[in-house]
Amino acid sequence: MMLHMLRQSWRRNRRRKLLAVSTVFLAASLLSALMLVSIDIGDQMAREMKSYGANILLLPAEQAALPELGDGKGNPLAGQSTLDEAELPNIVGIFWRNNIVGFAPLLAGDVPLPPGGGGEEEAVRVIGTFFDKNLAVPDEDDYHTGQKIISPYWRVQGAWPDDEKDEALVGAALARQRGWRAGSVLTLGGKTLRVTGVLASGGEEEDALVLPLRLAQQLLNMQGKVQAVRVSALTVPENDLSRKALRDPDALDAETYDQWYCTAYVSSIAHQLTEAVSGSVANPIWQVAASEGVIIGKIQWLLVMATGAALAAAAMGVASLMTSALMERSREIGLMKALGAENWRIALLFYAEAVLNSLAGGLLGCAAGWALARGIGWQLFHSPVQFSWIVVPGVLLISIFIALAGTWWPARRIARLYPVEVLHGRV
Fold this sequence. Notes:
alpha+beta, 2 domains, 10-stranded mixed beta sheet, two-stranded antiparallel ribbon, 14 helices, 14 strands, 50% helix
């Protein structure tokens, strides 16, 4: 009986049904789009933020433990303590290896230049690193890493050097000072180098020659050694747990420690890097890491607020339509009551009708929301947002909640409708 009445009710006043479905459809479209973007925005924004460079710096433990001197001389062990280059593949062997975007070792020092016409001995600063190094790592035959991957903000006028050749980038400031440019051939420490490009990085590299690590090790007589490693990792925003662990991981109980260790905080990834490379300490570069977390957190809150506003508007729209339906069908409701129908049965009929509307609008909204999310992804990140099936049941449940919430207030008025009054046109 109830199903028959529901079918009859569903077929009546199709214009109002279409308006109800459209109201839920619009809300579900926005909701599904924002949910898809929100699910994917952490990784997408983290990748975008990689343009600011590495967010973890791996240093020798001795150098990290000794503070900077107050006389402006810096750290007295800087450049003296080193790490073993052979342990660098361990960086991509940690639990969060898939979150490691790339890394680049650093080795810096001064190398004498051939004496000039005045006979005075001069030196030039050299920095050894990886540019686009094919590195042997477990379970990955074609792994590449280097500054070309982790430092997209580097601007090279010319070409990048080949890690296997005697080539170099000259910093923009040094190029102006020496008159070197792309194509210049230099003699340095008995080696003949070809400059492939001029580097603008905004950092110390602009006053130096940037070489393949192999070549810098030979010139500085430090084979197999590096002084630091810049690591770029995809991370999630820091919270109270990560900050507590950063202060003292040993103070965490076993369950909390596992939760922190198995979450991609910059602090937990840095901790695992320290464990992976002997004699090292990994420090987050907070200017980069903190900015990532703040920006992602604010965007997610913006999405939540926009979603809440859309849901509230949809619920009010459904409430308005159901109130209108209640007034139109007041005589029908009065007749049902006169024939002995209970209030809850009549209310159930309205709730069921609203749920059917919400399911139709929700399903259509999921499809439209996916298209909208893909458009947002291309516009913001130049790549499509991935579809997640978890969004479908989530959107349908919320669509049903919108319908039930919008029907609740009109349904309460059913109890205040008296058959005598509505049948005689007094309501």
